[in-house]
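Usage example:
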Amino acid sequence: MAEWAALAWFAAMLRSATPLLLVLLGETLTQRSGIINLGVEGQMLVGAVVGFAVAATIGGPLVALVAGGGAGLLLSLVHALLCLGFRANQMGSGIAVWILGLGISSYYGRSFVGAKVTTFAPVLGVSPVIWSAILLVPLAGWWLYRTRPGLVWRAVGESVDNAHALGIRPRGVQLQAILVGGVLSGLGGAVLSVDYTQTWANEITKGRGLVAVGLVIVARWNPFLALPTALFFGFFEAAVLRLQAVGLEVSSYLLACLPYAACLAVLIAVHLSARHASYMPEGLRGVFDAERRI
Amino acid sequence: MIRAAGAVALAAVCFLAIAAAFFLLIGKPPLQMLGTMVLYAFGDGYSLSETLVKATPILLCALAIIVPARLGLISVGADGQLYIGALAGTAVMLAGTAARGWWLLPAVLLGAMAGGALWGGVAGVLKARIGVNETISTLLLNYIGVLLVNHFVYGTWRDPANLGWPSTIPFPPEATVPSLFGTRVHAGFLIALVGVAAGHAWLVRSRFGVELRVLRENRKVGDMVGLDYARNAIVTMAIGGAIAGIAGICEASAIQGRLQPGLSLGYGLTGFLVAWLSGHSFVWAAPISVLIGGLIAAGDALQLYAKVPAASATVLQGLLFATALAVAGVARRQGARNG
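Running the assembly step on the lines above writes:
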């Protein structure tokens, strides 16, 4: 009995961690090239609405996820255009993309409120999407640390000027990095609506994309660490659902604060450790300004 | 100055073109829609008053973003500060509603300012002491702020007389921000205008303003001449929070008459947009807030009369922000080339 409860908890944790894991991986790769994108929240939202729309009309979860990733990619082009084309402030541009995604998703989501979709048959107790997302982690890590293109991305993230001197076209690399982040955030959004909740709600992501931008710091810009970080967040989301189910005498609204409070708490803990700043790609320092000042 | 005016005109033209394209895309006649929007925003006394009703929280939220931005901080926390301000102000109202008096409204306002200042100050302390990025911390605090208000209005503060509708008891007249000229426009608008003047005088034109500017442009120089970045980060974030807190209590008392969920209709993000469009200038934030307030009020009217979904106003805001960022980029490049 106790074992079943533990397993159920673990499965709930995996389910809620998966959309976040995908966004977190994408944002990690984007930031490794020296670009921060708060717009992942909006990209997740359009990925979620397009994925859900495809699943509800054309059908087929796989097509839906591909469509969601494509939607995220398209919206991330706006961030690329503003940051790379017009050299806009990255924080400002990300928030513009977020507002756009928020508006577009609630505009097209209106007709899907209350609809239900079906997803893949479970493999080993949970959706195969979850196992695929987990497999993506070593793949992204291997690609970033062990291949030549990965090295090039990291070089651009450390210094655009040095990369340029080495004959790399840094803006091209950053464009790719933003688009990869776009695909993964759109995919994460589609996984959320098509595979996890299987219903549509306005602003369905509830800040997961923004949480992911914060958790990139906690994961030290390392794709391998994205997995435990996403699971940590998933643990708290699962806790919210489980504790409500057992009828704990705490208001559901206080419980719902838990994931955000936990994210803030780990951010604080990470910043209290003296070495954390050394993990940040140098190219982000100007945008992020994480200098330690006491 | 001429160049700046040119950039504004270019941004306006680009935005109108994109907005027209958006209306075409959703199958509405673009020119007629744009004309109708201007009419619904500024056409008569009632439209104008609704525009000012929307502009008030937007301007206050924009000020809440601009104050820390004078130090170079990018706060997105106006929404959370608005909610916590309303929460704290409502707590004062609930505590003082038995012994009413003239003092209740000032106490409620101070409570709201303290609540907002606390929420902004938390992000300020985290930034100043351990370097947590303020954009990320304020975004997270926004979600917690909204949920905390829900916690109280669905819980201990729910008025049983509401038959299940989650909200507090109505604000008594002694605790309500008064309305102006018998319209829905309230004194919060005057407070916002005072905030514009005070902000410009104290945070731009004074010695303190120069301090902030030195620290913003080169923190090392600021450190060398003995300016305290950490203290100023906390102070500006807290002042910004206090201003957003006023927006919260005005919405709760004067507009909704009680504290209930859905207090802010994205005013925090819209305020962020206004702050950015104004170039973080207090003086420019006021007219831009009225323009954007008009856009949102017209969006509400269009939703009623032309069946244009409310989300369109959000899409238009996103397009406006993206256009402004792009045009600013072009202007900067031109400036670099000519100068």
